[in-house]
Specification:
Low-confidence stretches of chain B: none
Order of helices and strands of chain A: EEEEEEEEEEE
Number of strands of chain B: 11
Shape of chain A: globular
Order of helices and strands of chain B: EEEEEEEEEEE
Helix content of chain B: under 10%
Oligomer: heterodimer
Structural class of chain A: mainly beta
Number of strands of chain A: 11
Number of helices of chain B: 0
Mean pLDDT of chain B: 89
Mean pLDDT of chain A: 88
Distance between the termini of chain B: 37 Å
Strand content of chain B: over 45%
Radius of gyration of chain A: 14 Å
Largest sheet of chain B: 6 strands, mixed
Amino acid sequence: SQTIHQWPATLVQPVGSPLSLECTVEGTSNPNLYWYRQAAGRGLQLLFYSVGIGQISSEVPQNLSASRPQDRQFILSSKKLLLSDSGFYLCAWIRDRAPSGNTIYFGEGSWLTVV
Amino acid sequence: SQQGEEDPQALSIQEGENATMNCSYKTSINNLQWYRQNSGRGLVHLILIRSNEREKHSGRLRVTLDTSKKSSSLLITASRAADTASYFCATRGGTSYGKLTFGQGTILTVHP
């Protein structure tokens, strides 16, 4: 069966410090991978998606970047965090790319507080 | 801009009552999905309805889709305290990368 791991679960970082959130998927190959951000009490905003190694698309301009060094690894990074980067970050994957296809699976999320 | 918009934003009911949440969207879709999120956790998929379907059932869940009105509803029957969570609709359009666009969610509180 497929599983998705995301870490760290929580972190508190000072403004201006770097960030690295990691996500790995097990039990599948060549998944589409996604990073979402959720502000407190709000819906999810898609930040980045990747359809393959080294292929990253950004949905919104921001202080963050993403990389996919391996097929099942997706990393969210920042060189200098801003207060506005605080939020709940969710990694997700989907196996079926067909428009009528199946569901997206989420990790447990990473709580980031920038102080 | 947000594709899916849920209504109401918050819903408070007693155990045993039915809970109905609505979702409206703006552009054409291939499918619409409902997700549940317990506080501080990841999202869990509940049910998917395709654009050529009008109604779907899964246990105590019933989802309807009206593509002419660009709206969907999620009904939870005989609610339980454990159903307390946020519920999101998400739409998937005609792209190959499978982007899901989420609404703002409905916060459901079921009182025992």
